[in-house]
Amino acid sequence: MTQDPLVIFTPSGKRGRFAVGTPVLTAARQLGVDLDSVCGGRGICSKCQITPSYGDFPKHGVNVAEGALSDWNSVEQRYDDKRGLKQGRRLGCQATVQGDIVIDVPAESQVHKQVVRKAASARVIEMDPATRLYFVEVDEPDMHEPTGDLERLERALKEQWEITEIDIDFSVLSQLQTVLRKGKWQVTVALNTLAENARPRVIAAWPGLHETGHFGLAVDLGSTTIAAHLTHLETGEVITSSGIMNPQIRFGEDLMSRVSYAMMNPGGDVEMTRAVREAIDTLTTDIAEEAEIDPSLILETVFVCNPVMHHLLLGIDPVQLGQAPFALATSEPLNLSATELGLSALPAAARIYILPCIAGHVGADAAAVALSEEPNKSDDLVLIVDVGTNAEILLGDTSHVLACSSPTGPAFEGAQISSGQRAAPGAIEAIRIDPVSKTPRFKVIGCDLWSDDDGFWEQTAQTGVTGICGSGIIEAVAEMRIAGLVDSSGLIGSAEQTGTTRCEAEGRTHVYLIHDGSADGGPRITVTQQDIREIQLAKSALYAGARLLMDKRKADKVDRIELAGAFGAHISPLHAMVLGMIPDVPLDKVQSAGNAAGTGARIALCNMAARRDVERLVREITKVETAIEPRFQEHFVAASAIPHATDTFPELSKLVALPQVSFNTGGGDEDAGGGRRRRRRRG
Amino acid sequence: MTQDPLVIFTPSGKRGRFAVGTPVLTAARQLGVDLDSVCGGRGICSKCQITPSYGDFPKHGVNVAEGALSDWNSVEQRYDDKRGLKQGRRLGCQATVQGDIVIDVPAESQVHKQVVRKAASARVIEMDPATRLYFVEVDEPDMHEPTGDLERLERALKEQWEITEIDIDFSVLSQLQTVLRKGKWQVTVALNTLAENARPRVIAAWPGLHETGHFGLAVDLGSTTIAAHLTHLETGEVITSSGIMNPQIRFGEDLMSRVSYAMMNPGGDVEMTRAVREAIDTLTTDIAEEAEIDPSLILETVFVCNPVMHHLLLGIDPVQLGQAPFALATSEPLNLSATELGLSALPAAARIYILPCIAGHVGADAAAVALSEEPNKSDDLVLIVDVGTNAEILLGDTSHVLACSSPTGPAFEGAQISSGQRAAPGAIEAIRIDPVSKTPRFKVIGCDLWSDDDGFWEQTAQTGVTGICGSGIIEAVAEMRIAGLVDSSGLIGSAEQTGTTRCEAEGRTHVYLIHDGSADGGPRITVTQQDIREIQLAKSALYAGARLLMDKRKADKVDRIELAGAFGAHISPLHAMVLGMIPDVPLDKVQSAGNAAGTGARIALCNMAARRDVERLVREITKVETAIEPRFQEHFVAASAIPHATDTFPELSKLVALPQVSFNTGGGDEDAGGGRRRRRRRG
Question: Which residue in chain B has the smallest CA separation from A315?
Answer without folding.
Answer: B174
